[in-house]
Structure formats: C-alpha cells, structure tokens
Specification:
This protein is mainly beta. It has strands spanning about 5, 10, 20-25, 35-40, 45-50, 60, 70-75, 80-85, 90-100, 115, 120-125. The N and C termini lie far apart (about 40 Å).
Length: about 130
C-alpha cells in the first residue's frame, strides 16, 4: 500500500526555521516527482515546491523562493522541505504528494498528483 507521511510541523516565531519530512512506504520515492503543497484556512491548496525523480532543478513558488529548499534522502526514502525565514503568511497545513517522474509544467496543480499524505500543521506566530 502506497503511503506518504509528513512530519516536522509545529509552532515557530517569525524569522525561524522548520524542516518538514515526507516519508514514503510501499514505494520508492525516487521513482516519483514529489511536491509540497499548503492550504491555509479559507484558501485553496497551493503548490510550494516540487522535486523531480533523479537529477533536475526543483520548482518553487515565487512566495518561497530564496527561503525554502527541497531535497531527497533516497536511503531514507524521504523528501525534506527546509523552510527558513518563516513569515506569518506561511502558516498552513503542509502536504506532500507524489506524481510521475517529472514535476513538469503541472507541478503546482494539486490535481496532477495521485498520492497524498495527511498533512502537518505549520504555524508562524509570535
């Protein structure tokens, strides 16, 4: 059974950092493009970042460029989202999701991803 599990969320002050993890079971993450999405209350789910299978440059939403990075640890079958210089507007539930090999032009569209985790809450507040 394919399963994605996010962890690492929590409460952090503005300017702080968090690292989210997306661990897979039942399949090999490196065979898929992995996206991170977030959804704030009353807002639509939006694409934050995507890392393609194997080599290739990741994608980032303009709102997080220069602050967030994405990486894989294939030995742990896990993808990470490192979030630095957090802002109040980063507050949301964060989800990871899997799709085919490449992020492609559809990377920021939730409907392009077939497998989803349950989400982890990130709250940025003083």
């Amino acid at each position: 059974q394919l399963q994605l599990v996010e962890s690492g969320g929590g409460l952090v002050q503005p300017g702080g950092s968090l690292r989210l993890s997306c661990a897979a079971s039942g399949f090999t993450l490196d065979n898929y493009a992995i996206g991170w999405f977030r959804q704030a209350p009353g807002k639509e789910r939006e694409g934050v970042s995507c890392i393609t299978s194997g080599a290739g440059s990741p994608n980032f939403a303009d709102s997080v460029k220069g602050r967030f990075t994405i990486s894989r640890d294939n030995a742990k079958n896990t993808v990470y989202l490192q979030m630095n210089s957090l802002k109040a507007e980063d507050t949301a539930i964060y989800y990871c999701a899997a799709k085919g090999l490449l992020c492609g032009s559809s990377w920021s569209f939730p409907g392009a991803f077939g497998y989803w985790g349950q989400g982890t809450q990130v709250t940025v507040s003083s």
